From TrEMBL:
<dbReference type="InterPro" id="IPR007569">
    <property type="entry name" value="DUF559"/>
</dbReference>
<protein>
    <submittedName>
        <fullName>DUF559 domain-containing protein</fullName>
    </submittedName>
</protein>
<feature type="domain" description="DUF559">
    <location>
        <begin position="29"/>
        <end position="95"/>
    </location>
</feature>
<feature type="region of interest" description="Disordered">
    <location>
        <begin position="1"/>
        <end position="20"/>
    </location>
</feature>
<dbReference type="InterPro" id="IPR011335">
    <property type="entry name" value="Restrct_endonuc-II-like"/>
</dbReference>
<dbReference type="Pfam" id="PF04480">
    <property type="entry name" value="DUF559"/>
</dbReference>
């Protein structure tokens, strides 16, 4: 199956990302990232990420990345299972924009 990713670079897996909090410590770890495009992808499993406090924490961290110029894409595990091709297409489209 051709996905149109033939010209896209390979992502870095489990990349520690620094945000805009003024330190060099990692703000969060992206599941996949394309540093040269400043695109970070998070794959969120229901069991770990469905709690409101976890969602608030995730949002704060991802907002820091966005403030640092990163594009952040997040997908729920169920979304990936139901429509992996759609998730991949969203990533590819973002990479082509940058």
């Amino acid at each position: 199956m051709a996905t149109g990713t033939e010209s896209a670079s390979r992502p870095t897996q489990q990349l520690s990302l620094v945000g805009t909090d003024g330190t060099t410590r990692p703000v969060t770890i992206a599941d996949f990232a394309w540093p040269e495009h400043k695109v970070a992808v998070f794959c969120d499993g229901w069991q770990h990420h469905h709690y409101p406090e976890r969602q608030a924490s995730d949002k704060a961290k991802r907002d820091q990345l966005a403030d640092a110029g990163w594009t952040v894409l997040s997908f729920w595990g169920g979304e990936i299972v139901r429509d992996a091709e759609g998730c991949a297409t969203a990533i590819i489209q973002q990479l082509r924009r940058t």
